[in-house]
Amino acid sequence: MSGSGRIIAIADVHEGINFGIHVDPESGLDARALDIHHNLVLAAKNAIKSGADLFIVLGDLFERVHVSPTVREYIRQDVIEPLESAGIPVWILAGNHDQPSNFSRGTSIDDFRGYPNVTVYRRPTVETVDMGGKCVGFIILPYLHPRQIAGMIYETMGREVPQEQILHVGQEMLGEWIRRRAEELRTDCKILLGHYYVEGAKLRKTSYPEVLPGEFSLRRDVIPDNIDLVLLGHIHLHQRMESTGGVEIVYPGAVERIDWGERGDAKGFLEVTPSDDPVWRFVELPTRDMISLDADVSGVEDATDRILNGIPDNVDGKMIRLNIKLGESTRSGIDEARIAERLKGAFHYSVRWTEQVEDKILSGSFTMNPYDLLEDFINTNYNEHPRREDLLEMSRQILREALQ
Ligand SMILES: [Mn+2]
C-alpha cells in the first residue's frame, strides 16, 4: 500500500435505524436515517480524496444484527465499492449492535466479506500493515457479549466460571491477551482498536443508552503502556482520555446525532497518522439542528402566542421538539393549527403536552405518526419493563414491515 499514510476511523454509524421520519414508500428508508448515511458517505469520500491507506469502522456500522437489503445495498454502492475502486482497505469491527451473541450466527456486516478490500472482525485479532513507510501493528478487539467471553474463558481455561465472575475473569483474560500481543508486535507503531466503554468515559443522558448494565467494559489499567494509541467505538460523544499509564484513548463518536441527548454535540470522524507518537485530528461532519423548546403556559391567557413566541424565526430543515406544560383542560384553548403553520418548514417536529392536573400530571402528545404512537404505547404500558428497549425495537420492526 502506498498513500498518505493516514487512517480514517469512524464509529457508531447505526445504519438501519428507524426514526420513522418521512419514510420513503419506495425504499422504506426514513429521511433522518439518510442523514446518517450521508455522513458515512462523506467520511468515505474524505478517505478517497485524501488518499487514506485504511478505512476503519470501530463497530456498530449497523443498528441491528440484521438490516434490510436496501440498507446494505446503499452501503455497497456508496461506500464499499468507491473505497474498493480507490484501493482503500476497509476494516469493519463488530459492535454490540451488530455482533450476534453467538459466533456461529451470521450478521449483516458479514455480507461485505465478498469484497477483496473488506475485512470483518468478530473475534480478537492482530494485523500488521505497512503504510506511509511505517510498519503499523493493530490489536483488534471487537465487541464481545458476556456469553462469548464465557465461551472464550472456557476455551482458554478449560473450565466454566460462575456467572458472577465472568466479567472480572474476562477482563483479566483479555487484559493478558492484549499485553501479550502488544509485547509480540515488533512494529513502529501499535494501535489498539475496539468497541468498548472505558471506565470514566463521558456519557450523555439519552433515551437510547449506549452502555447497558452488566456489559463488558475495558479497565484503564489493562491498556499496556507500550501501546501508542487506542481508538474506540461505542460511546457516541467524541472525546479523548488516557489510560492509567498515560496512553491516549480516543472515541471518534457517532457520525450523526442518534438521540436527542446528543443534540448539542459535534459529530465527525478521525484522521490518524500512525507513528510512535501518533497524531490524530477530529474532522467534523454536518449535523442537523435539533432544537428542544420548553413552554410553560399554565395559567397564561394568550397561550398560543406565548408558544409561538418561543419558536425561533428560522426552523427550516431543523428538528424541533416542543415541550408544553399547561393547566388542566386548557389544551382545547390552544390553536394547534397556528403552531403547525409556524413549524411547517421544519424537517420534523413533535409536540409533547404535559397537563397539570390537581394532584397528578398527565402526559401525552398529539401525533399521527405511527412510530410515535407506538412509542407512546410502549411508554405507557412497558416503561418499567426490563426489556423496554428490545420491545420498542422489535415492535418498530414489525410496524415497519406492516406499513411497507
Ligand atoms: Mn455500541
Itemize the secondary structure elements and their pairings:
Elements: E1 7-10, H1 31-49, E2 54-57, H2 69-85, E3 90-93, E4 118-121, E5 125-131, E6 134-141, H3 146-157, H4 166-184, E7 189-195, E8 197-198, E9 217-218, E10 229-233, E11 239-242, E12 248-251, E13 267-273, E14 279-285, E15 290-296, H5 303-309, E16 319-327, H6 336-342, E17 348-357, E18 360-365, H7 370-382, H8 388-403
Parallel strand pairs: 1-2, 2-3, 3-4, 6-7, 7-10, 8-9, 10-12, 15-16, 16-17
Antiparallel strand pairs: 1-13, 5-6, 11-12, 13-14, 17-18
Question: Could you name the key traits of this structure?
Answer:
single chain; 404 residues; alpha/beta; Purple Acid Phosphatase, chain A, domain 2; 2 domains; six-stranded mixed beta sheet; 18 strands; 27% helix; globular; binds manganese (II) ion
